[in-house]
Design brief:
Blueprint lengths: L3 H26 L24 E2 H16 L6 H16 L11 E2 L5 E3 L2 E2 H18 L2 H18 L10 E2 L16 E2 H18 L2 H18 L10 E2 L5 E2 L24 E2 L1 H18 L7 H15 L11 E2 L9 E2 H18 L2 H18 L11 E2 L5 E3 L10 H22 L3
Helix pairs in contact: 1-12, 2-3, 2-4, 2-12, 3-4, 4-5, 4-6, 6-7, 6-8, 8-9, 8-10, 9-10, 10-11, 10-12
Length: 428
């Protein structure tokens, strides 16, 4: 297992970077002091690009970041102030009084421009407002989280097949089939639904919310993971038959297009997304009062695949998309998968006790600090890089890439390194 001095050094380095560099990047740059909410478009030098569109996802994720940082003890009160201001802007501008739910895109002043109802955005709203309520005690957070829960299960629930419809019109009718996405479901949205229900149940303690969380975990484990490999399948028919991944017309990321321009092979999976699922599942177990060992088998299979085929042993870091049983051909690396793998691999170290998970963690950690973090531009991370770590998409912030993955990763890594250090100091 790792040397205690190594853990202590990494703990100091990570927390210093978080408090002195990364969090200040967003505290100083993102607040829109003129019109409210947040502006998150920054070029590779850390300077604003001039773009001012405000997507719901950028606003709700910034709310989560500031609330979670305050709850973790960072920001000396400033993060709570920004979270409150962000909540006010969201509540004032994005709720659709005519049809319920949150609209998808607004202009800088908060005037809606795209009224679509997007499942991905709604589960993040439930997540962020629950975190905000837990962090600040603001009753508006609890009310908004519960109102979002009602909208999700009142309008998006698929009562025939289970799970949620994900891409819908303003009036909650599903989008057309094909690239509009009305005939597909995804692991992504349901994994984040699990994450959001975990935080909601932590906030309310409601037996109903507990049942919803257990139901969602069961759905993912039985219908959305490969039955043998236990790796994540990506997209599905409405009755959960696996489909090759396509890019939807409604975007919430800037991933590279699938190689054939249409769909990925069914055996493709995302090691970063899978390991993110592991740590979110283990956290759900904690909140539910279940032993983490309940999910040890699926955690081991996922993390072993990540270590075996997802990690680049030559240049470091984690590949974006990897076949389930073959070496990868595409070798680009995306920032968010590195961020999530850091958390999940530390959970694997603690739960499964194999030194290979620590070596994999150090591999990704060193790649992040050597290649992704742009210290001379304020300390945020590049969006996408090639195998050697050269930028392919050098934005530090935009409509979808903000503080959510990077700040959350560093907060969670600090917490896990501290726990691991204490355990080793105590000889456990």
């Amino acid at each position: 297992m790792p040397d205690p001095n190594e853990i202590s050094d990494l703990l100091r380095r990570t927390e210093t970077y978080l408090t002195d560099t990364l969090l200040p990047f967003w505290i100083e740059r993102s607040p829109d002091e003129e019109l409210g909410g947040f502006l998150t478009y920054f070029d590779r030098t850390g300077k604003p690009t001039g773009e001012t569109t405000k997507t719901f996802l950028m606003q709700i994720r910034m709310l989560y970041t500031m609330a979670s940082a305050h709850r973790a003890g960072y920001g000396q009160g400033r993060c709570a102030e920004l979270a409150k201001a962000g909540a006010t802007f969201i509540l004032d501008h994005y709720w659709d009084d005519a049809h319920d739910g949150w609209v998808w895109i607004a202009d800088r002043a908060g005037r809606p421009t795209v009224f679509d109802k997007v499942g991905y955005g709604h589960v993040f709203a439930m997540y962020a407002f629950s975190e905000y309520a837990l962090a600040t005690g603001d009753p508006r957070g609890r009310a908004a989280a519960l109102r979002t829960y009602d909208a999700i299960y009142g309008h998006m629930a698929d009562t025939r097949h289970g799970g949620l419809f994900e891409l819908m019109e303003r009036d909650w009718q599903p989008k057309p089939p094909g690239r509009a996405g009305g005939d597909r479901k995804s692991l992504d949205v349901h994994m984040h639904l699990m994450e959001a229900l975990t935080r909601l149940y932590e906030m309310t303690g409601s037996p109903t919310h507990r049942r919803r969380l257990l139901e969602t975990i069961d759905l993912i484990l039985t219908r959305m993971l490969h039955p043998q490999t236990r790796l994540g399948l990506i997209q599905f028919t409405l009755d959960f038959q696996p489909l090759g991944r396509i890019l939807f017309e409604t975007e919430w990321g800037r991933d590279a297009a699938p190689a054939d321009g249409e769909a990925q092979p069914l055996d493709m999976t995302s090691p970063g997304h899978n390991v993110e699922f592991v740590w979110l599942l283990l956290h759900a177990a904690d909140v539910l009062g279940q032993p983490r060992e309940t999910y040890a088998d699926v955690a081991r299979k996922i993390c072993d695949h990540c270590v075996g085929l997802g990690i680049d042993r030559q240049f470091g870091g984690l590949y974006a998309d990897v076949p389930m049983a073959r070496p990868p051909e595409a070798t680009e690396k995306q920032f968010w998968q590195q961020a999530e793998a850091l958390i999940g691999l530390l959970d694997a170290v603690a739960l499964l006790g194999d030194e290979k998970y620590w070596h994999a963690f150090r591999n990704v950690y060193d790649f992040v600090f050597d290649k992704l973090i742009v210290m001379d531009a304020g300390g945020e991370w590049y969006e996408r890089v090639d195998r050697q770590g050269r930028p392919l998409d050098d934005a530090l912030g935009h409509a979808w890439k903000i503080s959510y993955h990077t700040v959350r990763s560093m907060i969670q890594v600090v917490q896990r390194l501290r726990t691991l250090s204490e355990r080793m100091t105590q000889g456990g």
